[in-house]
């Protein structure tokens, strides 16, 4: 179990597109998600009617495969493809 946690906390390098939002330094996945939420809240990108939906601006659209809106539950799927 401890190994899974260590892997979960291992710093990952964001893609250039993701780095535009979270910075280019390697970060644990949890920190990447936190910074994504900071960005979403700072730019008021949560849907006003349905808080579970995230409206993508130009930077987020690149990460969300061109989608204008995704649910918060889909976010980690899209972030994963931008982390190494």
Automatic annotation (TrEMBL):
Pfam families: SWIB (PF02201). Residues 7-84 form the DM2 domain. Transmembrane segments: none annotated. SMART domains: SWIB. This is DM2 domain-containing protein. It comes from Elusimicrobium minutum (strain Pei191).
């Amino acid at each position: 179990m401890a190994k899974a946690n260590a892997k979960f906390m291992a710093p990952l390098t964001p893609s250039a597109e993701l780095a535009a939002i979270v910075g280019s330094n390697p970060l644990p996945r949890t920190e990447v998600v936190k910074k994504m939420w900071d960005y979403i809240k700072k730019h008021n990108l949560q849907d006003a009617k349905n808080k579970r939906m995230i409206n993508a601006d130009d930077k987020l659209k690149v990460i969300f495969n061109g989608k204008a809106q995704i649910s918060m539950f889909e976010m980690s799927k899209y972030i994963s493809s931008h982390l190494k």
